[in-house]
Amino acid sequence: MAGLAESGRFCHNRVFAKSGAGRWRGAGGGSVEMFKGKTAIITGGSSGIGRELAQRLAAAGSSLALAARDLDKLGRTREEIIARGGGR
User: Fold this and answer.
1) For residue 76, what are the CA distances in angstroms to 18, 22, 40, 51, 68?
2) Left (φ > 0), alpha (ψ -120 to 50) or beta: where does 74 sit?
């Protein structure tokens, strides 16, 4: 994790909101595109905000490590991401 923190692109508790242009932007002004080619670790990836964030980051070209309590739902999320062309 030191590499992420040192890169200056890692922000703890970044809040994402959809802008009028339809892109997801972080509270600091960055967008999910800044995570292209990076690896993201997402907890709660099977539903809600975690699932949505996983789908957005995968579409932007991120590699993902997902964790969730419900493995069946997590598996469905994984399959959806792969079907949309995400997942490396």
Assistant:
1) 24, 25, 19, 10, 12
2) alpha
Query: What residue type is 50 in one-letter code?
Result: G
What is the total count of domains within the chain? Answer: 1
d(CA 26, CA 17): 6
| pLDDT over 60 (residue 32) | yes
Checking DSSP bridges between strand 63-67 and strand 39-43, what pairing results, if any?
Answer: parallel
What are 42-57's pLDDT values in tens digits? 999 999 999 999 999 9
Residue 12 domain-assigned (yes or no): no
- Cα angle at 78 between 26 and 23, to 5 degrees? 25
H/E stretch holding 26: strand 24-26
Spatial distance between the Cα atoms of 81 and 88, rounded to a whole number of angstroms: 10
